[in-house]
User: Fold this.
Amino acid sequence: MAISKPSLLPLLILTICLLSFSATSQSLDSTSTYDGPCPALSAGASSCPIRCFRADPVCGADGVTYWCGCPDAACAGVGVVHTGPCKAGSSSAGLVPREALLLIHITWLFVLGFSFLFGLL
Assistant:
């Protein structure tokens, strides 16, 4: 008595259907565009300079924090890497990032102010 093997044809058809479905879903995902954390801003929709009433910082592709958000970065012609301020040292503009220079300046003003206040200078 011969043992009949189950037909592999239904399994083969099912595998081909699943592969074609996954290929079409991946092609649909690749056609959608992702603009990063900021929606696409049309050139006429925003006016420069930006009037900022609330800080909404984003980190630009140039390593500079734009405090007025996506419209501020778009006004500067820079793409946005992520929301929130840039991390220290992410600027490629110079040896010391702008935020570090600002921090040094503010610290110096505090030291100078306390020196005058307590008569050290």
In short: Strands lie at 58-60, 65-66, 80-83.
